[in-house]
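Is this the right way to post structure tokens for a design question? Let me know if I should format differently. Anyway, here goes:
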């Protein structure tokens, strides 16, 4: 799976909005991956303190973030690519669309 990290530096290096988009896309993908990993990290809490559950949740979060940053399922990459295409289309439309002042005639 391809990593979006290279695309972040190339296509979005000059754009703070692009970096925010990439980070948000990774966060979204990581949350989805966390939910998929959760059943695999469940165990019975034998110590009764809940410390194992907290540690397992933290590990699941870290694993999901790492998987997403490494390319994950490609969800983040697809989100960034799709929204970037939309933004480029909107920019081209704004450049070609005449400005209307609201007056008639």
């Amino acid at each position: 799976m391809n990593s979006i990290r290279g695309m972040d530096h190339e296509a979005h290096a000059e754009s703070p909005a692009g970096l925010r988009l990439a980070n948000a896309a990774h966060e979204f993908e990581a949350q989805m991956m966390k939910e998929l990993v959760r059943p695999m990290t469940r165990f019975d809490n034998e110590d009764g303190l809940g410390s194992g559950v907290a540690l397992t949740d933290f590990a699941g979060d870290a694993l999901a973030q790492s998987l997403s940053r490494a390319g994950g399922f490609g969800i983040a990459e697809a989100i960034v690519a799709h929204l970037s295409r939309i933004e480029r289309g909107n920019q081209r439309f704004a450049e070609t669309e005449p400005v209307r002042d609201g007056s008639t005639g």
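Format looks fine. Someone answered above. Worth noting: The radius of gyration is 21 Å. The mean pLDDT is 76.
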